[in-house]
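We store amino acids, tokens; thus:
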Amino acid sequence: MTIIDRPRRSALYLPASNAKAIAKARTLPCDVVILDLEDAVAPEAKDEARAAAVAAVAEGGFGHREVAIRANGIDTPWGAADLAAIAASKADAVLVPKVNGPHDIVRYEAALEGAPAAMQLWAMIETCASVFALEPIAAMASSTRLSLWIMGTNDLAKEMRAQLTPERTPFLPFLSMAVAAARAHGVAVLDGVCNEFRDLDAFETEARQGLLFGFDGKSLIHPAQVDPCNAVFSPGEADLAWAHAVIEAFAAPENQGKGAIRVDGKMTELLHLEQARRLMSVSERIAAAG
């Protein structure tokens, strides 16, 4: 279940217990809404938040946005109830935390056995164990609902006792390896959150770093981050002009059957044609979403 070309530029976390925030999310231009039952909800409010999340997705009104519910971990006191409620809900996906290896994906898959076939399994990559099991975790996409990862850099920093600097230096190897593992198995992958929601210049710098690594988009903690995030992860005019040129060149009669041609003075191969088509597809989907 891989939907790589679906726009997921911006994925906004919201406490599922905050009705006003959920109502506002229905008006924001984010591509993904994540109703959080985990970190953003106090233990005494877990049951109420779970009911609120299920009610919100039942009510709808999210338009083109994908809606995921982040469950508490399967071994927590709330995990089993969260997974059962989400499996019976109208959410597009369940996001699960603290995945350490393929065995965790197997357990979550089993917990979602009764869920609609279209419900996706998304996983947080946020533990030291997970970064040493990236490829086998990603490989589970071929036999389970797993379709997307979100990097949890805050939790990873805490577990590593590392400093989360603006440059994210301690995490650069993990970020690139996560993207490579995800791409190898057709898993979409989103960058972690940026804790700067007042300094949007700092946020944009980090978002552009994520784009450089190849992430599909970025997870967000504040509505103010949505617009700059969408701008960074949307194909630009130059990108689309290149894509148009590549597609038109390969479609020309004289280039039929060729694996490599010259476009605008540069050698261009079929792999570039695939990239160009994906760019156009994403751009068209963004435009259709309004």
